[in-house]
Input
Amino acid sequence: MEYVTLGNYCSITSSKRIFAEQYVEKGVPFYRSKEIIEKNNGQEISEPLYIEPEVYETIKKKFGVPQKGDLLLTSVGTVGIPYIVKDEQFYFKDGNLTWMRNFSKELSSKYLYYWISSKFGKDSLVNRCIGSSQAALTIDILKNYKLFIPKRDIQDKVVSILSAYDNLIENNNKRIKILEQMAENLYKEWFARFRFPGHETTSLENGIPRGWSEKRLSDLIDVDPLLPVKKGIQVKSIPMEALSTDSMIVDENCIQLVDNPSGSHSQNGDTLVARITPCLENGKTGFVQCLDDGETATGSTEFIVLRSKELSPYYVYCFARSQYFRQTAILSMNGADGRQRVNVPKIKSMKIAKPSNEIIKRFDSIAKPIFEEIYLLTKQNKNNIKQRDLLLPRLMNGKLAV
Output
């Protein structure tokens, strides 16, 4: 392996300044550190920003824009998160992100990506940060950063091994997204548009299909139910950050063990919905599948727990994701401390249409395998990530031959 100075093997720079007044509702995506971290984690952008295509084209002609294979690095605050640019079009915020481009033939940008992703690679960068209140990596620090790299053919072999795991993870994530969309579309088609099996011969009465009934939400769904929590042992606690803005998956990496459980109580099959701003507007929701049989978890008081009483748990999750529920929850919010919260009594009293038991059972028979497949793919990804992360340091330091 060879000891090299990074600035000799790629150009290290940043972007041209874009001002907040240049943001538009639609156009070319504009990323800050937050968005790059989300993309690196395979997540949807939670708060998308855009700039005018004309602005992007002007910058592209004069200064260049990120190209496939370039590497971006978060460099202020949460430092050391790398992102390899794919075949995509976007621009990014100056100062927050550092741009590495024009790599020499001796250094693979993907190898550098995995180097920075390794614990020792990230630690070595963090140790070079400046700033007491907020860590920062300057362009000069990165230009003079020294690291060991093997010959290019070895780099390519390492990248091939590690990227095989990333490809599996990415493909599983795509399948999960498709499955979630299938469940959401099924719910909308049957219970929002009333195009359920047999709808052609079912008339409407008072705006809902014959055989259905209008109920208060609390008649059909338990809101923030209490569960017995074992004392004297550590209990799993689900924090707000475990919930996603675009997926049902509860991030098990965020779950902690606590000695003195407090807050909300949940079990497998429950739906968790943020009760505060801005998390509710952003869509933070999760479907609990990660507990052992009979296990109870505690969690943040900042989300609502919904548990099915006379409905399918899968129906409850899709209902919680619906525009009708979310808008009703948002309109119910009150509070004067700058963080408004959902008014739970108002939520409990909202009216919803209860489908016939036959339709609920048919929905359940379709939705249950979808949810189970999503959880299975999630577990596969967890194992893939674990295997990749075990291999990564051994490949990077040369302890494992390729």
Observations:
- The radius of gyration is 25 Å.
- The first helix runs from residue 33 to 40.
- The CA atoms of residues 26 and 169 lie 30 Å apart.
